[in-house]
Write a structure and sequence with these properties.
Shape: globular
CATH superfamily of one domain: 2,3-Dihydroxybiphenyl 1,2-Dioxygenase, domain 1
Strand order of the largest sheet: 1-4-3-2
Largest sheet: 4 strands, mixed
CATH class of one domain: Alpha Beta
CATH topology of one domain: 2,3-Dihydroxybiphenyl 1,2-Dioxygenase, domain 1
Structural class: alpha/beta
Distance between the termini: 44 Å
Strand content: 15-25%
Number of strands: 8
Order of helices and strands: EHEEEEHEEEHHHHH
Radius of gyration: 21 Å
CATH architecture of one domain: Roll
Helix content: 25-40%
Length: about 230
């Protein structure tokens, strides 16, 4: 049986009203090279930008003409790692470095660009620094890996989350999945489950066979022809 699960974040897509400001920050302050900047496929009037964390991990930006640029602290944005924010919104994001020395070097790089940094702080399984980014982003750089679940799953918090012992075991050891040669058919729409918005607009697309989606929605030609 396969232990199939996502092994990382291919790209985290963040909304922006100022693509240039975000790319300038991520490229200069954090040192992430720009890899893509183009009209977002299938979305009218919208830019898409990608900066590289590693060869298979990126931070992306979406500049839609209707993006709301009004920040409401505690509603749209948390502003710092311990503050409230609307459920489903990004509370903060932590970027990874391999060593504590690299963490300190990132602290110094960011401060060298006149940005304040809080930390480092030792959380036991990771060590972190914290700082702010453009448009209200709450950011962290951390080092650490292989969290020991037996030490870091608190029974008190487990109880407050109403997670039973059986449910906890299932979460710690997710059921394996074995893919077959035949794809699993698209289930019917269920309003009680998460779904893309607005559901009426997406219904026809969700009902399309996968091979039709692949053929009709894919767009692989880069905007610049380098021969």
């Amino acid at each position: 049986m396969s232990t199939l699960h996502p092994r990382g974040v291919n790209h985290l897509a963040l909304s922006t009203g100022d693509m240039k400001a975000q790319l300038g920050f991520w490229c200069d302050v954090l040192g992430c090279p720009l890899k893509a900047l183009y009209w977002m496929h299938g979305v009218e009037g919208t830019y898409h930008g990608f900066v590289e964390l590693s060869a298979d991990s990126y931070v992306a930006f979406v500049q839609h003409p209707d993006n709301n640029t009004n920040i409401e602290w505690g509603v749209s944005h948390a502003g710092s790692p311990g503050n409230p924010v609307t459920v489903g919104a990004m509370q903060h994001v932590a970027l990874h470095v391999d060593t504590f020395d690299e963490l300190l070097a990132m602290r110094d790089r960011i401060r060298d660009r006149n940005m304040q940094v809080w930390g480092p702080v030792d959380h036991g399984f990771i060590q972190s620094i914290y700082f702010a980014g453009p448009e209200g982003l709450s950011l962290e750089v951390a080092t650490g890996s292989d969290i020991p679940a037996e030490s870091w799953i608190d029974p008190e918090v487990q109880g407050l989350c109403a997670i039973s012992a059986d449910e906890l075991e299932a979460m710690k050891h997710p059921a394996p999945f074995e893919s077959s040669s035949e794809p699993v058919p698209q289930p019917d729409f269920d309003s009680a489950l998460p779904h893309m918005q607005p559901p009426g607009r997406w219904k026809a697309t969700m009902d399309m066979p996968d091979d039709v989606v692949w053929r009709e929605a894919s767009e692989t030609t880069p905007p610049v022809d380098i021969g």
